[in-house]
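We append the chain.
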Amino acid sequence: MLKTLYRQIGAYKKESILTPIFSALEVLMEILIPFVTALIIDKGISAGNIQKVCQYGALMLLLAFLSLFFGIQAGRYAASASSGFACNLREGMFANIQTFSFSNIDKYSTAGLITRMTTDVTNIQNAYQMILRVAVRAPLMLLCSIFMCFVIHAKLSLIFLAVLIFLAVILLTIMKKAMPIFDEVFNRYDDLNASVQENVSGIRVVKAFVREDYEKEKFSKAAKNLYRLFVKAESILAFNNPVMMLSIYGCIISLSWFGARYITEGTLTTGNLTSLFSYIMSMMMSLMILSMIFVMITLSAASAKRITEVLEETADLSNPDCPVLSVPDGRIDFYQVSFSYQEGSGEDTLRHIDLHIKAGETIGIIGGTGCGKSSLISLISRLYDATEGTVCVGGLDVRSYDMDCLRNQVAVVLQKNVLFSGTILDNLRWGKEDASEEECMEACRQACADEFIEQFPDKYHTWIEQGGSNVSGGQKQRLCIARALLKKPKVLILDDSTSAVDTATDAKIRQSFSTQIPGTTKLIISQRICSVQDADRILVLDDGQIIGFDTHEHLLRSNAIYREIYDAQMQGSGDFDH
């Protein structure tokens, strides 16, 4: 874990090294000040030597100024190093998430990833800043103070060693009990963020069904669970401060008692006792700071573990050593393909698929919910890898291609359409970054999106809100289709992507495909017979298996399930979910 986090420091190693150096110099100046104070008392004030008082006073001012200067530098570099480290952590996680396959993404909730990139990184940033600045300063101050105490009076210094052993035992016990609770706290943070995200994204449904009270109760439950865990954790950490105060006052009382005896015996001077009091306060303050660091590290250790999980996650899918960089054509072949989302679970989503599609064909895919339609097309663009068998595009195994090249030539309009904040042109250019406005307009004409775009006052420069909330479902689908067409793909897959479009517009889109992109292989998944009946061939899936693959007319005569779907829809029952 530490190695993974260390690699993310990156260009901020210089600041990370300079911070403890300046902190050490700051401590050195502060440690010398009580020693000079003792000299002022013993050799200046007690001896009545004003010249010595002035000399040592000037030296003390110089030490104080240097301490201030080194402290400012340490703070500046610590802030730069910790902020840069946090930035690198976020960039590192985000970059690694971009490499994830769908199976990797399935391991994490959206809310969980957001928590890791916000709350968890902030915890690590604060902890790192304290480690660089305070965690160097406090132990060094502690050790130097103990050393100076031993120089002044070795026997009295044994008091501090006894206190340190006592504190170490108590703090380790507290950490051991608090750590598991903080692990649970951040899991509850995920639940809380998930509740907020789900509510905000589905706010229209919440209001339409008058479920505000239910949502408030659900959020309140998540918040109270988090509250109870924090109270439990903080109740354990609350022992930290009383133990520290007990140690401080115990040291002061012991030092006063034994120090007075040694002064009367003549083995300790008043100046030395004054210095010991200064050093003991420095030591105790260092211990207080270390206890704060201890709390911060306890809290951030759970965050570090969660961040490391994302940084160390390896993508399930990767490019071969010598990838193929071009797709010859739109042929698609499945050779005895089986697929399971959880390999080894024994529950295959697809079983023994043997399928052969020619380049330029239009293939309809139909079947009930959960029959494996979306899983089938996910294997073509290698969003997942087949568990068994081989999937080929253009006559080559999809695993032999460079994944970016393959996905640029196998354009998929997914079931869940996503638009991003920006203009219509910005969204269309996701398909082709350097597409001209004319190319975008042509793609929209093919997808029948130009009909509504031309009605907007700003036309193609109309602003799309996040998630496409200011356009209808059908408009969103057509924009997503146009975006895919800009790729000029060898294979175009529409995963139920015209479900929100009226049948007349659906027919226009299909007609446009047949005339404008005849060489592109087109796979159209739909629940509507009318959307696939004119396809060259229609694939019927049921329970992860192919139960029919033929023309509309032949399937009506030979396939009972297809005929059942057709009859149900033609009798006015609407879309059929077998």
